[in-house]
Amino acid sequence: MPGRTKNVLVSSGKTVFKSLGQHYLHDQGILKKIASLTAGTCHNLISEKIMEQPSVIEIGSGIGNLTGYLLENGLSVTGIEKEKHSCEIASREIAGLRTGDCSCIFYHLDFLELSSDRFSRLDCNSKKLVVGNLPYNAASHIIIKCLEEFNDIAVMKFMVQKEMGERLATAPGSRVYGVISVLCGFFCSIKKEFNIPAACFIPRPKVESVFLTFTVKSENPPQDYPIFKNIVKCAFSQRRKKLVNALLSTGNEKMAAAAELLGWGSKRAEELSVADFINMTKAYRGIS
Questions:
Q1: Burial of 110 from C-beta contacts in 10 A (0-12 / 13-18 / 19+)
Q2: 5, pLDDT greater than 60
Q3: Of the residues 58, 68, 88, 117, which has the maximum number of CB atoms within 10 A of its CB?
Q4: Per-residue pLDDT reduced to its tens digit, 182-191
Q5: How far is CA 181 from CA 20, 219, 282, in A?
């Protein structure tokens, strides 16, 4: 498989753009495992009547390495790729791999510029399943965009840099627990599936990756989210300080009062769970 990926890149005259965070996953075993897990999730969502059709949106479809295995697992695929040449290669390489009723279409799009209306029309399902090998330099932005802007996603399955994965899936009290940990925890539960060695990619990155599953929650109504997000950002703005002092240093006396009201004057932001920040948001709103 490394040879195939390299041959496709060479024969197509494809330049790898490190500025775009391009690292193509070539390991056949890992690709099959990801496709199988994704298909299993899709069929579970259909059986639970959350999704209607076996399909998936692939972010960062690259030259189609994962796409082919998704098709082999009975999923129709809508691929989104920012880099035009990769999109053209994928369209050509995947053309003969479609099986049964599965369809495949690639769009040359920058996902970060995608509107919620355009996203909802990419896939016929009322709730969507999303998968992707996310570029290291844009992973956090893509994940947050999915959660904040698109309310029709049921599950996301992403490969990210291992260090980023640790920040996303960590618990309160961890040294890497921070803003993105809490924001993602507000919207979803996160499960680490498995690590992916650097040798599985072309070009080989300097770090390992991890494959994560994000299951979006149905609770936590989003109307308070802007307040919640602002509180979290202010709380972690100076994470070494005690919570009240960190909030006061940003000029937010009302937030500091909410923390005091809850008896958290001596705590630090990294000690608070998502539920704690939700309670703090409620306390903040209750202060006149």
A1: exposed
A2: no
A3: 58
A4: 999 999 999 9
A5: 24, 18, 20
Q: What is the pLDDT of residues 73-108, one digit of tens each?
A: 999 999 999 989 889 888 888 876 666 788 999 999
HSE of 186, CA atoms in CB hemisphere, 13 A = 26
Query: Taking a C-beta distance cutoff of 8 angstroms, is the pair 108, 86 a contact?
Result: no
Q: Which two tokens stand for residue 259?
A: 């923390």
- 245 with 212, same domain: the answer is no
What pTM value is reported for the model? 0.91
Can you spell out the DSSP letters for 56-67?
EEEES-TTSHHH
Mean model confidence pLDDT for the chain: 89
Please state the length of the chain: 288
Whole-angstrom distance, CA of residue 271 vs CA of residue 288: 27
Same domain, 238 and 170: no
Helix (H) or strand (E) holding 199: none
SS (H, E, C) 68-133: HHHHHCCCEEEEEECCHHHHHHHHHHHCCCCCCCCCEEEEECCHHHCCHHHHHCCCCCCCEEEEEE
Question: Residue 271's domain is classified under what CATH number?
Answer: 1.10.8.100
Structure tokens at 8: 């496709």
State the amino acid at position 14 in one-letter form.
K
Last residue of a domain, one of 216, 245, 263: 216
